[in-house]
Amino acid sequence: MATVKFTLKNITKDIEAAEKKLRALRGKVIKADQKKIDLNLRSLSKARGIIGVVCRPLAHYAQAFRMKAKK
Fold first, then answer.
1. Residue 4, beta-bridge partner list
2. How many domains, the chain?
3. Which long-range contacts (CB under 8 A, 24 or more apart) does 17-25 make?
């Protein structure tokens, strides 16, 4: 059987960078926008959690799938 490997490391890095930027902006905006930022932060953390659950790390967010070999 063939093994396909890929990594989601770049996606998780992008999510963490977006969270960091939103946290930095949060204190500089009005209350209404802070609520929107909080919702976005919550969504990003859920997305990172889903990636962590669905793609169990072999070596930091890498996943291997087994496929039937073509005959």
1. 65
2. 1
3. 18/44, 19/44, 19/45
Q: What is the spatial distance between Cα 27 and Cα 60, in angstroms, rounded to a whole number? A: 32
Residue type, 50: I
> Of the ranges 21-25, 46-50, 55-59, which one carries the lowest mean pLDDT score?
55-59
* Lookup: tokens for 64: 């291997």
Give Cα separations from 4 to 15, 50, 53, 66 (angstroms): 24, 20, 19, 7
CB atoms within 10 A of CB 24: 9
CA distance 6 to 21: 27
Residue 14, Cβ neighbours under 10 Å: how many?
12
Distance CA 57, CA 64 (A): 9
Stated pTM of the model: 0.63
Residue 51: phi and psi, rounded to 5, are -60, -40
